[in-house]
Amino acid sequence: MSKKLFFVGVLVAALVGGVVAIAGVSFLLRPQNADSFDEKQKSSFVNLLSGGDFTVPDGINFIASAELVTPAVVHVKSEVGYTSRSQRDPIQEFFGIPEPGMGPGRPNAMPISSGSGVIISPDGYIVTNNHVIEGATRVDISLDNNKRYEATVIGTDPTTDLALLKIEGDNLPFIKFGDSDQTKIGEWVLAVGNPFDLNSTVTAGIISAKARNIGILRDVENNLQIESFLQTDAVVNPGNSGGALVNLAGELIGINTAIASSTGTFNGYSFAIPSTLVKKVMDDLLKYGAVQRGLLGVQIQNVSPELADYLGKKFPVEQGVYVGGVNENSAGEEAGLKEGDIIVSLDGKPVNNVANLQELVARKRPGDEVIVSYLRDGKTLTTTATLKNFSGDTNIVKREEPKTFNFEGIQFEDVKQATKDQLQIAGGAVIKSNANEAWRAAGARNGFIITSIISDSGRKRVSSAQDMINLLKDVQGEEIVVLGMFPDGTEYYFEIKVN
């Protein structure tokens, strides 16, 4: 056979084989009288990738972490006061004088603050942001499975924007603390919370930066606010506040707190309080009822070219914390620190900026010793400082539990001095707890501050909790008007018959 005939034979065979293959595939692709879409789709060769053929690389597998932590992230709803009738004159209503536009049965609007929280123990302790529950008269918790609880506020710390809550439960799902110091820029993280009241929402991103200070916290009294945020590009929106930032091992490495936005919604970056600081604050609130702040007692600024130009100095390092002054009788003074020193590490951890140093010190308590490395005259020196509290000693500060007074299932306590100063009131009685159904139905809420009552004998000021008890005993059997305000300053009143 000639070569020409051989090649012609091969070509003909190839063409015949192709036609047969196409015909066979066409036959198999036909639905074959399928009466369900499952059968129709199974007969197709278009989607060749099956679940078993697709494997997510371990480094970016979000599924396991999301399944682990979602049940432990809760929805927090806070009732923060009344708005309707706040400007109503109680004397007018007491004497039956109608208010223009005030119809009978007008509802009392209860403003609601909504956010997220993280269960951190099986017996129901929850961490959230202070701003989520600030001024709340009632805090309700909803779990991922829609189970509801009323929470007790154990303690708050406005300087870090954290709060500790407690619900009554056993064997609850919780998230373990991770070590935020070990997180790396570029590491994958998940943000879990309830943005826009959308429960159990999970978003993913990376750690974009660490030790960020964005100037959102204010401590008017002592200027002790701490901002050393983890920055991430995981999507966070209103309602995510207090929710979890976790790594792919399902460990809590931060509490989502803020977003960088000109619109109020996510614009690319969000910020979380690092877990090392969260854990310390939660431990303090659990053990002492108040956060223990150890202070170095130095005035500090970031090392920068701008500061060098302003001072007319040439810094030996590009990063660090410049000591601009040392307070008298402070831990820093006793350790030998002086103006002009540059702090470069604390307890062996590098210190690159003010936020970094503040966070490291904030993890300590009064009486704790820290090893400070600093630069002076071109030399690296080391000293040990014993941190002090704001009062200048090393004592642990425990929250004093105010004395409570009981009347018909209602607990009253005195108004704290800080609240008096803030609301500019001379005194009053706070409703600590209320198990009296008649008072609850009348509008009495936990946290309400009673400043006066109106009875048959006229209006009487309430100066203290004991004073409130005495007045109630005097007006038993009468209908009275109870006047006061909520912690946010919202004025309110209600009527009740005292039994």
Instruction: Give the tally of β-strands.
Output: 25
| CATH class membership of the largest domain | Mainly Beta
Say what oligomer this is: single chain
What name does the CATH topology of the largest domain carry?
Thrombin, subunit H
Number of helices: 12
Structural classification: alpha+beta
Rg: 32 Å
Topology (SSEs and partners):
Layout: H1 3-29, H2 37-42, H3 63-69, E1 73-79, H4 90-94, E2 112-119, E3 125-128, H5 130-133, E4 138-142, E5 148-157, E6 162-166, E7 188-193, E8 201-212, E9 229-232, E10 244-246, E11 252-260, E12 269-274, H6 275-287, E13 298-302, H7 305-311, E14 321-326, H8 331-334, E15 342-346, E16 349-350, H9 354-362, E17 369-376, E18 379-386, E19 404-407, E20 410-414, H10 417-423, E21 429-434, H11 437-442, E22 449-455, E23 458-461, H12 465-474, E24 479-485, E25 491-497
Antiparallel strand pairs: 1-2, 1-4, 2-3, 3-6, 4-5, 5-6, 7-8, 7-10, 8-9, 9-12, 10-11, 11-12, 13-14, 14-15, 15-16, 15-17, 17-18, 19-20, 20-21, 21-22, 22-23, 22-24, 24-25
